[in-house]
Amino acid sequence: MTDHDAQPTAERDRTHEEAGRDQTRPTPPEDGAAQVSTDATTAGAAAPDIPELVIISGMSGAGRSTAAKCLEDLGWFVVDNLPPALIPTMVELGARSQGNVARIAVVVDVRGRRFFDNLRESLAGLDTRGVTRRIVFLESSDEALVRRFESVRRPHPLQGDGRIVDGIAAERELLRELRGDADLVIDTSSLNVHELRAKMDAQFAGDEEPELRATVMSFGFKYGLPVDADLVADMRFLPNPHWVPELRPYTGVNEEVAAYVFNQPGAKEFLDRYAELLRLIAAGYRREGKRYVTIAIGCTGGKHRSVAMSEKLAARLAAEGVETVVVHRDMGRE
């Protein structure tokens, strides 16, 4: 065999070796093949867990920080003064946390007023994504807010060159629509820190939430309407036990006073029909995701008629499976 014959043979051997090596290399995908594979992987992967979201807002000085700290103690991931436009981003980051951030609370207030107009748009975007979210609004009277700002000697965020009451009025107007959209309104005018924490714990503590929580509150019209009431009923259509000398010293929790009230024409009928109406309203609240309702029952002084009716109504609701708390706001105030 001549050198001329050997050379082609060596070249052929190298060609076969290179061909064998080429066969062991992964074949690059054609255009679109990689995308199909990625889509299939994504389709097979579990959808991320979307965290539960609570928006904490309300009047400056009404207790937003206390409410936020309460949720933080309950294991919520709390972000203070987050611009509303960034709320969807925060929810997205929580969804990517593989369950480590399952509940997010965001404090939104007038300190971020440049971004406040974006809040409604951000919440609408979250609704379309199926995010479970609630709005907690902290409310308080002007008198209580002025007293709190004066006690810490700090100006109201919107006060400017005016008075504290000017800043409060401007803030109420700015937050008016958000208050109307709130799922839970808490009036902290007469609450201390511990009582506010108790209200937050009642709403958010525990893994199994009851379907609906109700506060039945008696009050006196002469002391003003409860600002956190969702529903208000007036008992002044019933005769007043105040004008019965032997009943005047007692309150509506007294059996004789309660018997007097419910022996009046229309009292029992009101209880039956109002309880029926509340069943209808409660069903709607559940459908809309509302879990907390305050029912205010009023009379002149909040001592006799409203107290007796509140006790009976609360017992009726509790018997129907609604977790109920009774509060007599003005009893003993006279």
Query: Strand order within the widest sheet?
Result: 2-3-1-4-5
| Category by helix and strand content | alpha/beta
Any low-confidence stretches, pLDDT <50, length ≥5? 1-12, 19-46
Q: How far is the N terminus from the C terminus?
A: 127 Å
Computed Rg: 32 Å
The SSE order reads HHEHEHEHEHHEHEEHHEHE
Report mean pLDDT, rounded to a whole number.
82
Number of helices: 11
* Count of extended strands: 9
Structure in words:
The structure is a single chain. With 334 residues, the protein is α/β, with parallel strands linked by helices. Helix content is 44%, strand content 16%. The protein contains 11 helices and 9 strands. The chain has a 5-stranded parallel β-sheet, with helices on both faces. Strands 7-8-6-9 form a 4-stranded parallel β-sheet, with helices on one face. It is globular and about 65 Å long. The N terminus is likely disordered.
What's a concise summary of this model?
The protein has 334 residues and is of the alpha/beta class. It has helices at 3-24, 33-44, 64-73, 87-95, 119-128, 142-152, 164-181, 193-204, 255-262, 267-287, 305-319, and strands spanning 52-58, 77-80, 103-107, 133-139, 184-187, 213-220, 231-234, 292-299, 323-328.
